[in-house]
Fold this protein.
Amino acid sequence: MLSIDKIAYESKLKDVSPILKTVCYFGLLVYMFLLSPVFQSVGILIIAILTIYTARMTIVRYIKWLLVPLPFLLISFITIILTVSTSKSELFFSAHLFGRYVGATSASLEMGYQLFFRSFGCLACTYFYAMSVPFNQILYVLNKCHLPSYLIEVTMLMYRFIFILIDEMLLIHQSQSMRFGYQTVKTSYHSLGLLFRVLFLQSMARYKKMMIALEMKFFNGDFPLN
C-alpha cells in the first residue's frame, strides 16, 4: 500500500461522507481559482494545518510531500515570466543573449505570481482530499456520479496495477543497488534496462495470477461497485 493511501485509510475524516468531502474539495478549488493570492495564501495555511491534523502526520513529512511537485511548479513559473524581446525598455529585468534581451515584464511577473499561488493552492486542496478519502470512497463517488461502469472499472484496475508496478520496481532496484548496479553511468544504464525488462515480465506474471484468482471466484467481467 502506498503511503498516501495508508494515510487516507487512517485519517480522522475517513468516516465522513465521501460525497460531502468531494463537494468541499471542489468548493476549495473554486476558492483557489477565484480569489487573490493573499486569500489563497491564507487558504493554503489553513488547509495545511487541517491536513496535518486529520492525517496524523508531522509537519516535516507534509513539507516533503509538497516538495515532490514543487520543481514542476517552478519550471512552469519560470517559463511564464520569461520573455524574449528586442527592446530592453519593455522588460522589468533582462539579460542580453544572442542579440536579444531575455527577461520579464511586470505583466508576466504578475501572471506568474498569480499562477504559482493558484497552482500551489489547488495542490494543497488535492493533498487534503487524497489524504482523507480512501480509494474505495472515490469509487463510490464516481459511481454516484453515474459515470460509465467500464470507466470506473478501468480506473480501479489501473490503481491496482500502480501498486504492483511500484512494489516490483522498488524490490528490483533495491536488489540491484545491493549488487552495486548503479556505481557508474555504464552500469546504471545496464541496470535500468534490466529493471524495465524484469519489471515488465513480473508485472505480466502478477497480472496472470490475478486473472486466475478472479476466474476461481467466478468473475464474469463485471465488478460490483455498489
